[in-house]
């Protein structure tokens, strides 16, 4: 499946009293990964919303193996888990600068028609892009 990698640093405001990245911030990290994954395909999440498609998270499972700390440079790998139909599934891995696996996660999002608020199929332009890269 298609993967994308981004890097970012843990900011001071994202940490708890132990200087560890607060667990609640990981959902935002995964969102950054998904948005950049789409961008790598040439798809803008903003334009997807403008064309009437929303992607709410319906499931998020996170496994915290080791803590990320303030100022750590993290590498986030975002991978498409399966060809999307009405749902799209991603897997995530976060590594530190020593290439130690810190966190794994998976998320499922649903394609929702913004007008009807009902599930809809993955947009054709997304499926076409996935076919072009031979998923």
Overview of this protein structure:
This protein has helices at 26-41, 45-50, 124-132, and strands spanning 3-9, 53-54, 57-64, 73-80, 87-95, 101-110, 112-113. It is an alpha+beta fold and 135 residues long. The protein is elongated and about 45 Å long. The N and C termini lie close together (5 Å).
Task: Briefly say what this structure is.
By secondary structure, the protein is α+β, with helices and mostly antiparallel strands. The chain has helices at residues 26-41, 45-50, 124-132, and strands spanning 3-9, 53-54, 57-64, 73-80, 87-95, 101-110, 112-113. The strands form two sheets. It has a five-stranded antiparallel sheet, with helices on one face. It has a two-stranded antiparallel sheet with strand order 2-7.
Outline the secondary-structure elements.
Blueprint: E1 3-9, H1 26-41, H2 45-50, E2 53-54, E3 57-64, E4 73-80, E5 87-95, E6 101-110, E7 112-113, H3 124-132
Antiparallel strand pairs: 1-4, 2-7, 3-6, 4-5, 5-6
Number of helices: 3
Distance between the termini: 5 Å
Helix content: 10-25%
- Our estimate of the beta-strand percent is 25-35%
> Would you tell me the structural class of the helices and strands?
alpha+beta
The radius of gyration is: 16 Å
> How is the main sheet built?
5 strands, antiparallel
Q: Tell me the overall shape.
A: elongated
Unreliable residue stretches: none
Report the average pLDDT across residues.
Answer: 95
Q: Total strand count, please?
A: 7
Q: How do the strands of the widest beta sheet line up side by side?
A: 1-4-5-6-3
Indicate the multimeric state: single chain
> Can you write the helix and strand succession as a string?
EHHEEEEEEH
């Amino acid at each position: 499946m298609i993967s994308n990698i981004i890097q970012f640093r843990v900011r001071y405001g994202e940490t708890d009293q132990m200087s560890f990245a607060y667990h609640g911030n990981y959902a935002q990290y995964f969102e950054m990964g998904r948005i950049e994954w789409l961008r790598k395909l040439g798809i803008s999440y903003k334009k997807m919303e403008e064309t009437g498609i929303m992607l709410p998270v319906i499931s998020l499972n996170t496994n915290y193996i080791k803590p990320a700390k303030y100022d750590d440079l993290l590498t986030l790998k975002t991978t498409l888990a399966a060809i999307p139909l009405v749902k799209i599934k991603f897997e995530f891995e976060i590594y530190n600068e020593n290439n130690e696996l810190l966190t794994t996660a998976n998320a499922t999002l649903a394609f929702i028609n913004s007008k009807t608020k009902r599930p809809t199929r993955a947009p054709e332009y997304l499926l076409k892009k996935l076919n072009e890269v031979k998923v």
